[in-house]
Amino acid sequence: MIELSPTATEDEVAAATERWLHENLPPSWLKAVLDDDRTVVAAHLADADGMRRWFATLGDAGLATPTWPREYGGLDLSAEQAAAVADVLMRYRANRPMDDFIGLTLTGPTVLAHGTPEQKERYLRPIARGEERWCQLFSEPGAGSDLAALSTRAVRQEDGTWRVDGQKVWNSFAHIADRGLLMARTSPEKPKHHGISYFLVDMRTPGLEVRPLKQMTGDAEFNEVFLTDVVLPADALLGEVDGGWAVAITTLMQERNGLSGRPAVGPGVADDLARRAAAAGTWADPVLRDRLLAMLVEERVLQMTTVRASVASGRAMAGAEGSIRKLVSSGLEETAGSLAAEVEPVTALGWPQGAPLPAAAYEFLAMKQTSIAGGTSEIQRTIIAERLLGLPKDPDPEKDLPFSQRSRA
Amino acid sequence: MEFTWTPEQLDLRSSTRRLLETRAPLARTRELAEAGQRRDEAAWSAMTQQAGLLALGVPEEHGGAGGSRVEQSLVFEEAGRVLLGGPLLPTVLAIEALLAAGDDAALEEHLPGLVEGERTATLAVLGSTGRWRPSSPTTVAARSGDGAVLSGTEELVLDGADADLLLVLARAEGGPTLYAVPRDAEGVTVERLDVLDLTRPMARLHLAAVPARPLGLTGGGAGVVERVHRAAAVLVAAEQVGAMDTLVARTAEYARTRRAFGRPIGAFQAVKHRLADMAVQLEMSRSAAAWAAFQDPGSADEAFGAAVAASYCGEAFLQAAKDTIQLHGGVGFTWEHDAHLFLRRARAAATLTGPPSEHRAALVPLVLPDLVAPGHTEVPS
């Protein structure tokens, strides 16, 4: 495990991480990064066995999960120190991939907050070492923004095990995940928030079937998951019976505090789009140019807001800053996708048969994704209006009704 | 470091807020605006002689209090909250111009009276186009004996009918040059205007062979005015944040208390979500304005910060003013309601500091230097 003082500055953390990488990264990888030889780096990233070994090394050093306690494979670092680590890892392409986001960012903190010592022992280290991949089994066809309306049932058997039946949807990486975070209804006679429990599920359990969902981009990275007579052991329960909503809040809060790099103001997506416009000849259009620059301004102002939140964390925007940033950043993604198709109009509309989707077409088709995923923009606006401005809460006439008596979605 | 205010700076913010709330609240701004008065004399002397607000940003060797743009921007944010108008902004910008011109004799002559609030000043730098074009002023300086005489028309001169000292940018043989002209000099004709922004009196100035003294180097005026333009962008952005903060707070309060269909209107998502968007743009503007204020005056970072803030905050404030009226319904459209004072200020401020699209174009050489193409990003003269 890498040695770092808890009081180390961000620059000291970054330097120590870099030193460690120079000592531990496979020499040919290190050389390729330093020489900016992208082909060799790409070859390393594509080598599954090599990457498995690398993630184990990274995890044993504590660098994959630097904010976790040392006893579970972390380094006890602060969020700011961890961001410095993430920055350096990203620069060397030595970071964990997006596929591991749920385990690292959602499962870890949730298990740390609510798990038994046995659960922490069992689940955390394999995440830190990249041995187990996780997915989230929350949303359902009848429970999207209104997540607490979920109806997947978990019934306790006489032997203490749980039998689960239901259907989940929009489950990113479920088709390649080893384990899942599952919310299910255990007490339908209680009001909807009070009858939910939270489980840690082995995705290979019999009765659990994953079906890929093809998105409008043509990708199929998320899935539907069907649970039919799935039997879970008693110790799959995380937290209290019927106490799942509180556990879920921990998970949902983490979604906005994921490990990103150090907050900073610098070139972003808009700069790339401007350069692509110059290459495609569309930069000459003064109206398009102004729209690209307006996006650039908004993107920089969002970066400034992220820096402000990191400096004045918790004070400035009173619990709504995650929602503010999510709302603005989804808006920017939509703007970027829209603009991409105008910046490169020729490639966005037609491309050689069988060739992969060009960036402009992909970005255009994917632009609405983040306005919906992880809490729609409407939900974010409601949160901002209620928490920041103190406006009345949206009424939910069924909030205190027993779940079993509610109207159906 | 950005967004790290010292305890002294935070004290300055709260003492300025208290001062303005008692001596120059929004209700007083309205009275002055309706009476066509440029300032409340007692409030002005409290702000200047007692609180020393004009000494902020002025180096100590020139009788100032030192401090930086950060302090100034905190004061302007508070001023924006109550829509304080009158001589504050033009005098601060004129002080900025005098300092940037670096003319010792002029500094000695003018600065003490301005910093003390005994005299006021303004800038006539927009020429007859009303736009910042420091490299091509419209007023002309002709040589006359040892000095110069100025002739031309200057539009949108803030406080131009009452300020004691006019700083005029004019075309001289050696290039654009800044001149000092007493307002009561012979040949100056002041035409008081009726104005959109009722809190900021403006005048059109006619200069007919007015004797004037150059400030600093001949031909150095464009650089000075560019520097002042950036200061204006940064300080006006702070002012816009303060004004938006008032709008969001008041509109949210109205949405919590005004009832319709058996509930507060703030319970309806159509109202809630519009208010949420206002709050988001306020928080974003706050970040942009503060970021700009933390950059060193005259640096490329400041030029970047000023352009970003001017582009973002100007449009956000205008939108917030429109949304405020919409969310107040009929009462928001009345003369009695304060909303129109904000709407007027929002429009005027976004024009006085230059259109947002120009600030965006100015970003190209700063952040995308490889994409600068002749004729694409240069400001038309």
From TrEMBL, chain A:
Q: Which residues form the Acyl-CoA oxidase/dehydrogenase middle domain?
A: 135-230
Q: Which UniProt keywords apply?
A: FAD, Flavoprotein, Oxidoreductase
For activity, the cofactor(s) needed are: FAD
Q: Residues annotated as region Disordered? A: 390-409
Query: Which portions of this protein are annotated as coiled-coil regions?
Result: none
Chain ranges of the Acyl-CoA dehydrogenase/oxidase N-terminal domain: 50-131
* Matching InterPro entries: Acyl-CoA_Oxase/DH_mid-dom (IPR006091), Acyl-CoA_Oxase/DH_mid-dom_sf (IPR046373), AcylCo_DH-like_C (IPR036250), AcylCo_DH/oxidase_C (IPR009075), AcylCoA_DH/ox_N (IPR013786), AcylCoA_DH/ox_N_sf (IPR037069), AcylCoA_DH/oxidase_NM_dom_sf (IPR009100), Mycobact_Acyl-CoA_DH (IPR052161)
Q: What is this protein called?
A: Acyl-CoA dehydrogenase
What is the species listed in this Swiss-Prot or TrEMBL entry?
A: Geodermatophilus nigrescens
UniProtKB/TrEMBL annotation, chain B:
Query: Which residue ranges run through the membrane?
Result: none
Q: Name one GO molecular function term.
A: flavin adenine dinucleotide binding
Q: Name one Pfam family in it.
A: Acyl-CoA_dh_1
Provide this UniProt record's keywords sorted from A to Z.
Answer: FAD, Flavoprotein, Oxidoreductase
Q: Where is the Acyl-CoA dehydrogenase/oxidase C-terminal domain?
A: 221-355
Which organism is this protein's natural source? Geodermatophilus nigrescens
Kindly list the cofactors needed. Answer: FAD
Instruction: Tell me what this protein is called.
Output: Acyl-CoA dehydrogenase
